[in-house]
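User: I'm writing a tutorial on reading structure tokens. Could you give me a worked example: one chain, its sequence, then its tokens, then a sentence or two explaining what the tokens reveal?
Assistant: Sure. Here is the example chain.
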Amino acid sequence: MPTEKEVYASHAVEYEALVSREDYQGNILKAIQEIIPLDGLDALDLGAGTGRLACLLAPFVRTMLAFDLSPHMLGIARDRLRRFSRRNWLAAACDHRLLPLTTHSADLIVSGWSVSYVTVWNPLRWRAEADSWLAEARRVLRANGQVILFESLGTGNESPQRLAHLENFYGWLDEVGFKNKWIRTDYKFESPETAGEIAGFFFGDEMKAKIAREQMTILPECTGVWWIKV
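And here are its predicted structure tokens:
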């Protein structure tokens, strides 16, 4: 089972095989549209990875800029975005605490399964790093701009569970005033064998064994949605 840093450096194909089967019921886009209408917005996807959120939003927004530290992951994001007839997007590598954008140039920031790493990977400075991220988000957003974050509340469980290694991040979101709810983002696989192979690579042998034992093709997952207007 690779670490997160190993995944982002060299396992984009395997990562896309997993996330392309996530949220088969379409709850992520529904959650975003319940928070803010998308038509005409200039949107940013920070920590875009292989373009999961960027591809959801690109057909609706005016412009879509996808940023990630990993050029490896962005290669797949670009391939996916090129399938759209509209050329309203750009994908580029950068640190989303230091964006190559002018002040007040966007209406919406989305970020999925990414901002938490500024706390997890910086245990001695996690609060300062999180505050730095939010300050940069506020800088680039226009008045009444919206930030929407997605983060895990557990894979393989039917109801949400706060993950121990993300507790600082969850607490920080509450402290700075994010509203929140949770949604299901279940994975749907073609067979238990495919589910075990793909999910086991990321979630370990115990998850793989559970999938085989229960012959699962639907792997439940709970995801938190946090949002704030700046």
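What the tokens reveal: The chain has a mean pLDDT of 96. The chain is about 40% helix and 25% strand.
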